[in-house]
Amino acid sequence: MSDMLERLTRERIVAIFRGVEDRYADDAARALIDGGIGMMEITMNTAGATGLISRWREKFGGEAAIGAGTVLDLDMAKEAVAAGAQYLISPNLDEAVVVYGNEQGVPVWPGCMTPTEIVRAWKAGAEAVKIFPMASLGVKYLAEIRAPLDRIPMIATGGVDLDNIADYFKAGACAVGMGSKLVNLTWAREGKFDLLTARAKQFAEAARGL
Q: Could you tell me which pathway this protein works in (predicted)?
């Protein structure tokens, strides 16, 4: 198990920042860190994503792991790694990205839906996979595929909330990826960073208490 995978299984939540404006980004990240969230994912379809990754590595690197999300292909992977991303997450499986990440010492957790994709990712060198779209597939689907594929750590992304987060972990998720339910950009734009911190504390306590 790599250090980053060990951190993922300990932290249990990846906060997904998609479309956050630069002027709110640092304060929003600070708010989540203060609330106990230690893994930040900046999606590559966010304006200025690579600049944010570099800046957050410098500002928050001692407190949180900073990764890149929505890494669709090898070119994006190279951009993210050059910016300092400590891990790469994608909605799809591209074996070339997995191989490149391993060569660079940067874990890649690719998006998979079917058992075939999950095993392909694992054979390509992925230590963990992201099950996506979890909101549509449902927690029962996760439990079913975990039964024969229990050796492969799975990150459940989509549909996670306070009232069901325990169900995802009971079904076998090693961690969950969370976007708007955790990273509320409306609150950030309104300067309500205290609400972001309070929400983060709720989720962090719920995840670690399971």
A: Carbohydrate acid metabolism
